[in-house]
Design brief:
CATH superfamily of the largest domain: Vaccinia Virus protein VP39
Order of helices and strands: HHHHHEEHEHEHEEEHEHEHEE
Strand order of the largest sheet: 5-4-3-6-9-11-10
Distance between the termini: 65 Å
Oligomer: single chain
Mean pLDDT: 95
Helix content: 25-40%
CATH architecture of the largest domain: 3-Layer(aba) Sandwich
Low-confidence stretches: none
Strand content: 15-25%
Bound molecules: S-adenosylmethionine
Number of helices: 11
Number of strands: 11
CATH topology of the largest domain: Rossmann fold
Length: 271
Amino acid sequence: MTIKVALQEAGSVIPAKEAQLLLAYFLQKDKLYLIMHEETILKNEDGYFQLIERARNDEPIEYITKSVSFYSRYFFIQQGALIPRPETEILIDKVVNIAENFDKPHIAEIGVGSGIISCMLALLLKEVHITATDISEDALNIARINAEKFQVQDRITFVHTPYLKGINQRFDIIVSNPPYIANDAAVENNLSYEPDIALFGGESGDEILKEIIDIACCHDNCVLCCEMGYDQKEPLTRYMREKGIYESHFYQDWSGLDRGFTATIGEQHQK
Ligand SMILES: C[S@@+](CC[C@H](N)C(=O)[O-])C[C@H]1O[C@@H](n2cnc3c(N)ncnc32)[C@H](O)[C@@H]1O
């Protein structure tokens, strides 16, 4: 079977773009190679069609290829950590803007997952140290691989712990993209490959976010930056008011949906 025929056959069961991506991954070549070698015989076509079968069963392409594009870079990913979503780039930009008001900010990330937030912050902010936690060892291992890939491992301390438990340090900025989907929400098939602990945030979905707000309240003069569900602005505004936090700004994603907030806890230490 030629490359051209393999792509036609695969493209009849999964989207053509995915079939092409998987063949490029399988052959360890780029898209241009596939175009220039349409008539080349595909060796071990069974191996390629096994990948197609996995994709047909809704396994995310990112897990199959162990690679995900985020913030114009390719991060390592595999089952065990959430696949980064593009809207999290907005959260990173918010943190970068806020961090510019601090001299050598100490940043904590709760729920580091694949490490995209902490790694990007370390790449974008030169004088920063980040403490990154997660309750999943699998996720922490993936985050460590990415930190080494981007050579920022010296500026990120990874800790296997819930929230910031056992870390006796004050942080200027706490950032988190926690699980925020309600436990009983109807979700798409391909989410079943991602860890439940990365997706589901409790009965109403905002329980972990509220816990993180409580933790931030113990860090005087800190800014909390979080991603959240599109329908959580109201309950979180109410909760923050109950906690005496009045300086909060909600932001939207590129579809115009409420997607996150930044909140100032007490007075900020300015430069
Ligand atoms: C939505 S994922 C976000 C991953 C990554 N930061 C990103 O933006 O792609 C949430 C992460 O929080 C972790 N997590 C869940 N509950 C946690 C807790 N109580 N303390 C620390 N991490 C937690 C999960 O294991 C998962 O890796």
